[in-house]
Amino acid sequence: MPSDHDIVHCDGCLARIRWAITVNGRRQAIDADASPDGNLAAHVDGTGTLKVRVLSKERPTLEHAEWQAMPHAATCKSPRPRPRPRGASRTRRPVVRPGAWRPVR
Questions:
Q1: Coil, strand or helix: which one is 28?
Q2: pTM of this structure
Q3: CB burial string 28-41: b at 16+ within 10 A, e below
Q4: What are phi and psi of 51, to 5 degrees?
Q5: Would you state the torsion angle of the CA atoms of residues 3, 73, 28, 31, taken in this order, to the nearest 10 degrees?
Q6: Residues of the chain with pLDDT under 70
Q7: Which residue, 9, 87, 93, 102, has most beta carbons within 10 Å?
């Protein structure tokens, strides 16, 4: 478990969270304290970056210096609605494509 210097508070519910990097390179908020109910394995790599991976059928157990963590999205008690994923049911605007330029005669 890393030190408490990287703990911040959630803007919505003010819970203690840590920001981690997923296997796909995206940021994910996780609860600051270890949770035996969590579905994530978290560890600090050699550069000091907090990394997380999902405990899956292929790798269901914790390895080396990992600890079990809970994604904060599952426990956040914020009254604000969560943002929709990118591209999810947005209305599409028509695209106007200009034609080939022709000189006026």
A1: strand
A2: 0.69
A3: bbbbbeebeebebb
A4: -115, 145
A5: 10
A6: 1-3, 80-93
A7: 9
